[in-house]
Write a structure and sequence with these properties.
mainly beta, 8-stranded antiparallel beta sheet, Beta-galactosidase, Chain A, domain 5, aldose 1-epimerase activity, GH-type_carb-bd, 6-stranded antiparallel beta sheet, 6% helix
Length: 326
């Protein structure tokens, strides 16, 4: 198998392009370590929604590629208290008065490794909070997050390792705003593209899109849905298989492709989002380690996914995208 990795450019930004016989990926470290493109060579399809211009990306960076969310989704008025400390994150969702999607997605990450062997490619990026005074001003912890992207055959593995290098417990919530093209086929036939999620607990939301702590049981996401004709912005509790993983699937019969998106047991929730009324070409399947507004939801941590890292503790959260034909 031919495996290559090289420095490149994407919309005039420094990028890393890596590929094998099955998949080709483009990573932009300066855009929050965003894997902005993933192309399936056999079908000639780009699987992720990818911007055509820098202006398009800047208008809403969460809608392209795989943005890294830390913490993921909304925090009520940007405020929560934990271990005697009050955190106040900026209100960047003005209409709803929430903080949205954290503070890592727009930072420049450092490339730590680029290597290719005959069988696999490894690209590794890191963010150190001590290099970003803006982060320390709102989240006063010394920490680092290293993401290792491993391309092997038809698999792209994404391992995120967080380390608390401080002396106090540090809240940790991680997610990915993974923005798939929808549908995957080039004809735009949405009836040929279905997705499934291993989840039946559907969280009820307030008019500010925050969980109430209540839920309803539904089998519609397990049975398979088309992201067409309805607006989706749903939070569901992930269900794990015997190995402790949770796997979402997108299958497009017209394109002849099946995409499996597997996450380990640290990812306790899925969010499904397909844009606003003027967007109909994406399907965001977002794995989260904690649910929206987890620090403020009055439920057990085992349910919300809220947790911390102790001093010098490290946590690795693993996910994988697998691509194949139907």
């Amino acid at each position: 198998m031919s495996c290559t990795v090289q420095k490149s450019r994407f919309l005039h930004e420094e990028a890393i392009r890596f590929e094998n016989d099955d998949l080709e990926a483009v990573l932009v470290p300066g855009w929050g370590s965003n894997l902005i493109s993933l192309r399936w060579k056999a079908g000639g399809l780009n699987l992720l929604k990818t911007p055509e211009t820098k202006e398009e990306y800047d208008a809403n960076p969460f809608l392209f590629g795989i943005p890294v969310l830390f913490p993921p989704n909304r925090i009520d008025h940007g405020r929560f208290t934990y271990a005697g400390r009050t955190y106040e994150l900026p209100i960047n969702e003005k209409p709803l008065e929430n903080h949205l999607h954290g503070f890592l997605y727009d930072k420049k990450w450092t490339v730590k490794k680029m290597e290719a062997t005959e069988e696999r490619i490894i690209v590794q990026t890191m963010l150190d909070s001590d290099d970003h005074p803006g982060i320390k001003s709102i989240f006063p912890h010394s920490f680092s997050i290293t993401i290792t992207y491993t391309l092997e055959g038809q698999h792209l593995k994404i391992d995120a390792s967080a380390v608390n290098r401080g002396q106090d417990p540090m809240p940790i919530g991680l997610g990915y705003h993974t923005s798939f093209r929808y549908p995957l086929n080039e004809s735009g036939d949405k009836e040929k593209c279905l997705f499934t999620l291993p989840a039946s607990k559907h969280w009820t939301l307030t008019d500010r899109m925050l969980p109430t702590g209540e839920y309803r049981v539904t089998e519609e996401f397990k049975a398979g849905k088309m992201a067409a004709g309805e607006r989706l912005d749903d939070i569901l509790a992930a269900e794990q298989d015997q190995e402790g993983n949770s796997t979402a699937v997108i299958a497009d019969s017209l394109a002849g492709i099946r995409v499996r998106y597997q996450c380990d047991g640290h990812f306790k929730h899925w969010v499904v989002f397909n844009g606003t009324s003027d967007q109909d070409d994406l399907l965001c399947i977002e794995p989260y380690t904690w649910m929206t507004n987890a620090p403020n939801v009055n439920l057990p941590k085992s349910v919300t996914g809220f947790r911390d890292l102790g001093p010098q503790e490290e946590l690795t959260m693993r996910s994988k995208i697998e691509v194949g034909g139907i």
